[in-house]
């Protein structure tokens, strides 16, 4: 039901055309507190037109208006405040949620448009970093929210499986590596070689020349280079998959940078044909000064291609393959310039769809306020973080609910869910500090807190199921008490929340909402005996059911599980 529209129509009639309906709609606001009603119309814009005091106008309007869905229309100072009819609102919203279930909040914004989401995209031979974790969970959640609003997301893992770093890695491996060592502990060993390379090349700059030569051999298809590269890639992928399984994230494509090797010539030719390539000290560049950007480096002096060359090929490939309505890149804030350059070069090529490319940046995860860094060896190993989170969750479950049947499974859902939720509850551009104890707490603004509220609702429903409630489809769910009201209003705002989350590419909108709903449900539960038999029993059970449905759906959209008991 569009209540704003109802109010605007009534105001339009009352004002007899003295204010445009569009203006009326824009003027209607949500009061700060529910005590001031559910909607308010400030009369200031009318004072000049009508040459009357706003207070007087408010009185006159309030006297004229009556709307079925509203129990009261009241003038307070210069405002007309509208109070929804609690019983009818409650009845409508609860029936709707229980009829639609997980589909509640679905809406057709996307009209099935395809949306490739470039997400996670870690680099081969390095551990998956906390930045990649952010990209993975933000991208995964955006994909789910897009699907809920009728887009077709395509989750692409643009693996960093090509580039000069492979020259460095091969060089380091040839110098210090051994096959047995790598086989025993691939990611850590490869990282160790890589870190050592960066330490030693300070004193021995010739190492860099060797590394460059190795990368050139790789690009030219040299057998030894290719064999090593394939081996590093498959070992790394195995360890990435372990993490994705733990997180419960799946991909539609693993086309990484190397996938575009045979598509790069076309890009370079296109740029040449348009006369966009310029030579600069032996390298090929595209000048972007009219965009106020540094030139895009397309080919190095030795002919090797670059990160952006591969991204140009990938962008064009995605347009051809998916004919997308939008193309998203969930990549750290530090790459903002790269994506500006990418879009600018495509624009120069005359590809108008470059406007549909959106970089979805995010801030850093810090520890003790310090930036993490692979090169400095200051890394949080995600694999370990997830295991530690699960162990911590298990400890708390042992304390709180030692009888719980499926402890291992629930501990996994809670521990992993906590890490994901902690990431998503912050607006994505914010930096945040990672402190595991804080993340897995059952109280405060955490994933376990929301999961716990859901489990509590489920436990009430299990008890209710044992009573013979005689629920029928036509039962009246007319709650009208203040405690239920806050919960009901939150339930009713779910669609608007989803819409905001998808237009802002901001899962935190959903995460914050779920915290809000969990909190107000806990308050309701503390004040109200749900299962007392009186004439509102069935309505209260319907409210609890609806809360469970919407909490579970909110968590699902974040990529977090909702155990029925914990
Ligand atoms: N592998 C890159 C990194 O770890 C991220 C790739 C992002 N995606 C892209 N199409 N450039 O920094």
UniProtKB/TrEMBL annotation:
Molecular function terms from GO: arginine-tRNA ligase activity; ATP binding
GO biological process, one term: arginyl-tRNA aminoacylation
Main location (coarse class): cytoplasm
Domain of life: Bacteria
Compartments (UniProt record): Cytoplasm
One Pfam family recorded for the sequence: DALR_1
Ranges in a coiled coil: none
Listed EC numbers: 6.1.1.19
Entry keywords, A to Z: Aminoacyl-tRNA synthetase, ATP-binding, Cytoplasm, Ligase, Nucleotide-binding, Protein biosynthesis
Residue ranges of domain Arginyl tRNA synthetase N-terminal in the record: 5-84
Cellular component terms (Gene Ontology): cytoplasm
Stretches assigned to the DALR anticodon binding domain: 450-566
Motif ('HIGH' region) on chain: 122-132
Catalytic activities: tRNA(Arg) + L-arginine + ATP = L-arginyl-tRNA(Arg) + AMP + diphosphate
UniProt xrefs under CDD domains: Anticodon_Ia_Arg (cd07956), ArgRS_core (cd00671)
PANTHER family per UniProt: ARGININE--TRNA LIGASE, CYTOPLASMIC (PTHR11956:SF5), ARGINYL-TRNA SYNTHETASE (PTHR11956)
SUBUNIT field: Monomer.
Family: Belongs to the class-I aminoacyl-tRNA synthetase family.
Name used for this protein in its record: Arginine--tRNA ligase
Organism for this UniProt entry: Liquorilactobacillus capillatus DSM 19910
């Amino acid at each position: 039901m569009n209540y704003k529209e109802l109010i605007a129509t009534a105001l339009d009639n009352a004002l007899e055309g003295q204010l445009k309906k569009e203006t009326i709609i824009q003027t209607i606001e949500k009061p700060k507190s529910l005590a001031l009603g559910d909607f308010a119309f400030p009369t200031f814009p009318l004072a000049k037109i009508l040459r009357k005091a706003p207070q007087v106008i408010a009185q006159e309007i309030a006297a004229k208006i009556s709307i079925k869905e509203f129990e009261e229309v009241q003038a307070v100072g210069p405002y007309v405040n509208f109070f929804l009819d609690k019983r009818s609102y409650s009845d409508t919203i609860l029936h709707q949620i229980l009829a639609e279930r997980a589909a509640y909040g679905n809406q057709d914004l996307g009209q099935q448009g395809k949306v490739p989401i470039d997400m996670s995209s870690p680099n081969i031979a390095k551990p998956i970093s906390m930045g990649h974790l952010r990209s993975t969970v933000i991208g995964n959640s955006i994909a789910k929210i897009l699907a809920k609003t009728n887009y077709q997301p395509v989750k692409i893992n643009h693996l960093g499986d090509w580039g000069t770093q492979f020259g460095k890695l091969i060089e380091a491996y040839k110098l210090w590596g051994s096959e047995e060592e790598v086989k025993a502990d691939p990611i850590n060993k490869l990282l160790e070689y890589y870190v050592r390379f960066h330490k030693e090349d300070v004193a021995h700059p010739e190492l860099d020349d060797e590394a460059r030569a190795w990368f050139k051999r790789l690009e030219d298809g040299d057998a030894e280079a290719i064999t090593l590269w394939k081996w590093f890639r498959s070992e790394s992928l195995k360890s990435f998959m372990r993490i994705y399984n733990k997180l419960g994230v799946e991909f539609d494509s693993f086309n990484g940078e190397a996938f575009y090797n045979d598509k790069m010539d076309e890009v370079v030719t296109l740029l040449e044909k348009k006369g966009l390539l310029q030579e600069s000290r032996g390298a090929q560049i595209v000048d972007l000064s009219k965009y106020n950007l540094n030139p895009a480096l397309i080919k190095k002096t030795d002919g090797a291609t670059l990160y952006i060359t591969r991204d140009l090929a990938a962008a064009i490939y995605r347009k051809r393959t998916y004919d997308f309505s939008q193309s998203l890149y969930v990549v750290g804030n530090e790459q903002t310039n790269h994506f500006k350059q990418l879009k600018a070069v495509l624009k120069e090529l005359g590809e108008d769809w470059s406007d549909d490319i959106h970089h979805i940046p995010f801030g850093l995860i810090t520890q003790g306020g310090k930036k993490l860094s692979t090169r400095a060896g200051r890394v949080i190993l995600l694999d370990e973080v997830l295991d530690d989170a699960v162990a911590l969750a298990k400890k708390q479950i042992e304390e709180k609910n030692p009888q719980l049947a499926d402890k291992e499974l629930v501990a996994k859902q809670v521990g992993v869910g906590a890490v994901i939720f902690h990431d998503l509850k912050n607006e994505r551009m914010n930096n945040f500090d990672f402190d595991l104890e804080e993340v897995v707490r059952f109280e405060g603004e955490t994933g376990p807190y929301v999961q716990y509220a859901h489990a509590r609702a489920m436990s009430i429903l299990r008890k209710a199921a044992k009573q013979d409630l005689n629920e029928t489809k036509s039962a009246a769910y007319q709650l009208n008490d203040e405690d239920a009201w806050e919960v009901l209003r939150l339930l009713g705002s779910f669609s608007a929340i989803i819409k905001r989350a998808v237009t802002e590419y901001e899962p935190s909108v959903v995460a914050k909402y779920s915290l809000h709903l969990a909190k107000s449900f806990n308050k309701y539960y503390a004040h109200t005996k749900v299962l007392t038999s009186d004439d509102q029993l069935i309505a209260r059970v319907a409210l609890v059911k609806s809360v469970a449905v919407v909490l579970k759906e909110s968590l699902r959209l974040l990529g977090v599980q909702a155990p029925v008991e914990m």
